Amino acid sequence: MASMTIRDIDEKLKRRLRIQAARHGRSMEDEARDILRTALSVETTRTGGLVEAIRARIEPFGGVELKIAPREAMREPVDLDK
């Protein structure tokens, strides 16, 4: 088994880990190991690209109807020969 040292952990985070470990009746090290195991056991498979990822996050909020400005007639091209 490999070992790992984690430095510069915020005191609030460390306190929360200690409390959660106590609730589960185990050491902080065991609790951290279980959190990592749980978080990394689920394989995330991404399908699609960036557009699909953005759409999936925003779509639940609903759409927006935008007013499209009326188009003007095309201008005559500039005659550069004059």
What does this structure look like?
With 82 residues, this protein is mostly helical. It has a domain at 11-60. Helices cover 44% and strands 0% of the residues. The chain contains 3 helices and no strands. It has helices at residues 11-23, 28-41, 50-58. Helix 1 crosses helix 2 (28-41). The longest helix is centred in the middle third of the chain and has 14 residues, at 28-41. It is elongated, with a radius of gyration of 28 Å. The mean pLDDT is 90.
Features:
44% helix; elongated; mainly alpha; 82 residues; single chain
- Report the uncertain regions: none
| Rough outline | elongated
Protein structure class = mainly alpha
Number of helices: 3
Order of helices and strands: HHH
Q: How far apart, in Å, are the first and last alpha carbons? A: 83 Å
**Number of DSSP strands?**
0
The largest β sheet comes out as: none
Strand % is under 5%
Gyration radius from CA atoms, angstroms: 28 Å
Overall residue-averaged pLDDT value: 90
The helix content is: 40-55%
Short description:
The chain is an all-alpha fold and 82 residues long.
What is the topology?
Elements (H helix, E strand, L loop, with lengths): L10 H13 L4 H14 L8 H9 L24
Helix pairs in contact: 1-2
